[in-house]
Amino acid sequence: MVKNLSGKTVIVTGSSRYDEALCITNLPIVTEAIRGIGTGIAIDLAKRGANVVVNYTSPRGAIAGEEVVKEIGDAGSKVALVQANVALLSDLRKLVEAALALSGSGKIDILVHNAAAGDDCYMENMTEEFYESQTDINLKAPIFLTQLTLPHIGRGGRIVLVSSVSARMGMPQRTVYAGTKAALEGIAKVWATELGKKYGITVNCISPGPVATDMWTECEPDPIINAMPAAARVGEVSDIVPVVSFLCSEDSRWVMGSTVSASGGMKFI
């Protein structure tokens, strides 16, 4: 793999998560089958030479995080594993401090806002607590982590926000999740104009469709999946990661304020 991010310092939120529905044993092993998108992004950026800050929140996440650390170390990159709840401003500061400690230049080069909460809820059952639990992670965290990073971001830096096809598909029970993901796409455009020239960075969004888990293989094929233009399957982590890595690289220097669909054609943008 080309080391096109050598010397860069990266924060990837939600980078030690995996789907608990896939944990059919108690073995503390992260494999391709259960690896989350954020974990895949962190490892791929490390293989491209970047030094990466990985965060976790729960004891289960700490176990996964140690496996991520090992893979990044094996790739020859530096890594910091930080316990940080991105919904808390004090914990966001911990991520910035860890990144600056990793950086040889005193700069933070790349932010990937991947952490998300996506529970379902019908409107009739909506509560303020449910609303805040998702907006704190999906919206507040990217806004304030970016604000904390701006004094340290280097020219040529990259910000990537992870949206979802849910932002555009009108799926039932996804009022808050879809709303926050649509907001991220709007924020990418605002930041592109507000921060682009001033800080010499690019800001873009990626919009994944559903990504494969064991739950998908156990279910009957979804008619929507069968009708997808690219192939009759859900996506895999390896379908999403290279798109993010491109948006983090110098090759994407003329891509700005865009939302890139990585959904197999489930939703055209």
Automatic annotation (TrEMBL):
Can you give the residue ranges of the Ketoreductase domain? 26-209
What are the protein's UniProt keywords?
Answer: NADP
Catalysed reaction per UniProt? a (3R)-hydroxyacyl-[ACP] + NADP(+) = a 3-oxoacyl-[ACP] + NADPH + H(+)
Q: Which GO terms describe its molecular function?
A: 3-oxoacyl-[acyl-carrier-protein] reductase (NADPH) activity
Task: Name the Enzyme Commission number(s) assigned to this protein.
Answer: 1.1.1.100
Instruction: Report the InterPro entries cross-referenced here.
Output: KR_dom (IPR057326), NAD(P)-bd_dom_sf (IPR036291), Sc_DH/Rdtase_CS (IPR020904), SDR (IPR050259), SDR_fam (IPR002347)
Which terms does the UniProt entry file under GO BP?
abscisic acid biosynthetic process
* Pfam families in UniProt: adh_short_C2 (PF13561)
Matching entries from SUPFAM superfamilies are given as: NAD(P)-binding Rossmann-fold domains (SSF51735)
Q: Where are the transmembrane segments?
A: none
Q: Which family does it belong to?
A: Belongs to the short-chain dehydrogenases/reductases (SDR) family.
Tell me the protein's name.
3-oxoacyl-[acyl-carrier-protein] reductase
